[in-house]
Amino acid sequence: MPIFKTPFNGYSVKFSPFYESRLAVATAQNFGILGNGRIHVLDLPPTPSTPISELSSYDTADGVYDLTWSESHESLIVAAIADGSIKLYDVALPPSNNPIRSFHEHTREAHSVDYNATRRDSFITASWDDTIKLWTLDRPASVRTFKEHAYCVYQAVWHPKLSDVFASASGDCTLRIWDVREPGSTMVIPAHEFEILSCDWNKYDDCLIATGSVDKTIKVWDVRSYRVPLAVLNGHGYAVRKVKFSPHRRNYMVSCSYDMTVCLWDFMVEDALVGRYDHHTEFAVGVDMSVLVEGLLASTGWDELVYVWLQGTDPRAP
Amino acid sequence: MATQSPSPPNSTQDQPQNSATELAQATDGDQQVAGEEAIKQISTPSVFVNSEPVREEQVQNAVKFLSHPKVRGSPIIYRRSFLEKKGLTKEEIDEAFRRVPDPPPSAQAPSTNQDGPVKSSSTIQPHAPGQTLQPTAASHAGMISSMGPLKPGRFHWYHAVLAVGVLAVSGAGTAVLIKNALVPRLKSWIRKVVLEEDNALVKKIDLKPSLAEEAAAAAKAAAAAAADVARASQEMLNSKNTEKRYFEELMNRLDVQVQEMKSMTHAIRRLEGDQHGASDTSLKQPYTNGKAEFDSRSARSSSPPASVEPSVAPHPKSYMDIMAMVQRGERPPNVRDINDLPPNPNQQPSNPRLAPRAKPWEGGHAQNSSSQVFQSQVNGEGSNSMVQDNGVMYQLDGDSSVPWWQRKKAQITEIEDEIKGGPYSVRTNAQPIQSSWVPPQPPPVVMPEAAEAIRRPKPSAQREQFADHQSVSHPPDASDELQRITKISESGGAVEINGGESGLSSSEIQEEQSTQP
């Protein structure tokens, strides 16, 4: 399976929603503590034995914690930077024209960015300044700021079908569900006893949402009966850094953790752990499942490697 | 903020429609989908709202919590956050905030309840000093007992100091009370009794029997008085015991808290030292705070520790080196000064050349239209810019290379369908994947020849099947997979039918190939 070596520590990887073979990686120098950052736009080779090629890369003054592809323009990338800025990159323009926008509103590190897949015109960013901001591509300033969390917001994710609903996971141990038409959050779920690092909506069932936490578990919740989780997935040895539901199968999800593994789960089954990939040699921090190619996974970690592989194969196989 | 929210949706809803009109056939599909979504939106958001009635018990607990003087000093957002973590809904929290009145009267309100038992034990004679001490002792006692329910709240150092001081004062108060009130009263009682006795002695002629009687009476009275005193002191002692018990309990809990707070402050001190480096505020705390946070979480929840105790993941050595370097205020040597501001802040993004592709979970007609649009665009583009059509070039160009991820993927899903063998799968039940073909005893690797032998595909029927096969929400049939594999094996890897996956791309490919000359 092809791999890519990044000069800095990997933080996030995302497949392009337009091109099956394209993905973008967010990296930060010195583990993101203090240093520069870089965004890589990669292209998968036709044969698995050749390495992944880099289409372009963009340097930033501070580490890049997360990025997302635009759903409206196939060449646009939105990046969340550790200095709190949100930057917009256009892959189709020459590197000297990039970034094309830089929004400086968050007062602390911007930790996550997500693009609305139904509306295709807006994106939300989550920051360690406890706020979530809503943006559109055409406006120079944020459209709205959602300030309710009592601690860092680690991730904010749009609902895959309802274009006004999104969820946020925070270090104040709550998962909040928001509607952009409402002034505040519509639901508060105290999902874990410890910080919640990630959340994701189920793509096939409107009411299911999963959270990954520092307490090493992943919980799947039905928002209609949110007092008790639908499923609790144990198996990671350390904090769960990211969870993502499969775009192709209702019951599958993938997660990556500080225990250096990427795990595949089927939460409807008693023995939920379906696959475990331990190819990383440092914290596995970013994982993504391709929307266009079923079963294609990518992950990145602090070991400065990006792996792309098919579910069921060995990521390290040549 | 609320007034702003209507306008952005209106303005942003215009945009997708504008961009949609640019495309050939996507408009209808998109608008229909948008329309349906709009209808859905009106009805479904109710799912994402707490619809439970307000729970009175929770609200009362919250009111008690909020009335606590210590809590009153904390920022409102922390109070809300605490209550949310306890599982209260927004309505319950709002109701509790409504019920808690302004600060001064409510602080005394719980303490007046506690005045009762304390007062009854010391009803003797409220002397002036005793009076001033009493309410304070009562209020302190009240605070201690109302601190009981505050277990998972925030304990700071001054709580511990305050508790100790409070109990010392209450002990001193009772001591003073006894000294001031009780003892003089006792003395006067005894003196009175003795005086009465003397008087009785003087008055009575019949000394002996009367003396004896009166002595007995006096003794009885003294005994009664002593009994009263004893009872009073017993009650005092009891209350003191209960206070002591509360105190013990509190001290035990505080000890636990202190232990964990110590470790937490050590961790924080260490990490804060790292983080507040001389130069930069952009140091990334919460990962390290993530570690510190779950120490503090275990400190805050004095309930029994969770069965899954989060532990700090071991960080790489170079990570520790860099943290140490930053803590010393040094900048790591490999960091460059980079100007990452946009060279032209008004640079327009390049026009999108591809239509947005429908997601596998959306299914339906939207996919049809966009796939056709995609195809027409691709054909129209011809051989322009490699870069954009990169994702499509593989299918279009004449040579026989199939992207490795597509070909292998077919095999992989088949393997998954058949066995759950291999090093990676752990599941024991077969995931129902709507396979119409169930293998008898599946081998770990599918031999194309064997597969061909089992299945005899009909190419034309296969094509039609693919062309009609538009709905995406279920994964491909195993039979289709096999047929595709046999196709590949038959043609020696050449692309006839692309070993594609379900959904959009496979149907696209089919259509593209069918339109190729």
Structure, explained:
The complex is a heterodimer of chains A (318) and B (517). Chain A is mainly beta. Chain A has a single domain (3-310), classed as Methylamine Dehydrogenase, Chain H (7 Propeller). Chain A is 0% helix and 50% strand. Chain A has strands at 3-5, 9-15, 22-28, 37-43, 53-60, 64-69, 76-81, 85-90, 101-104, 110-115, 122-127, 131-136, 144-147, 153-158, 165-170, 175-179, 185-189, 196-201, 208-213, 218-222, 231-233, 240-245, 252-257, 262-266, 273-277, 284-289, 296-301, 305-310. In chain A, the strands form seven sheets. A four-stranded antiparallel sheet of chain A has the order 1-28-27-26, with no helix packed on it. A four-stranded antiparallel sheet of chain A has the order 2-3-4-5, with no helix packed on it. In chain A, strands 6-7-8-9 form a four-stranded antiparallel sheet, with no helix packed on it. The radius of gyration of chain A is 18 Å and the shape is globular. The longest helix of chain B is centred in the middle third of the chain and has 69 residues, at 207-275. Among the domains of chain B are: 55-101, Orthogonal Bundle (Arc Repressor Mutant, subunit A), CATH 1.10.10.10; 174-203; 213-272. In chain B, helix 13 (365-381) packs across helix 19. Chain B has 19 helices and no strands. Chain B starts with 6 loop residues before the first helix and ends with a helix. Mean pLDDT of chain B is 63; it is low at 1-45, 103-126, 128-133, 277-308, 365-401, 408-439, 457-479 and 491-517. At the A-B interface, strand 5, strand 8, strand 17 and strand 25 of A face helix 1, helix 2, helix 5, helix 11 and helix 12 of B.
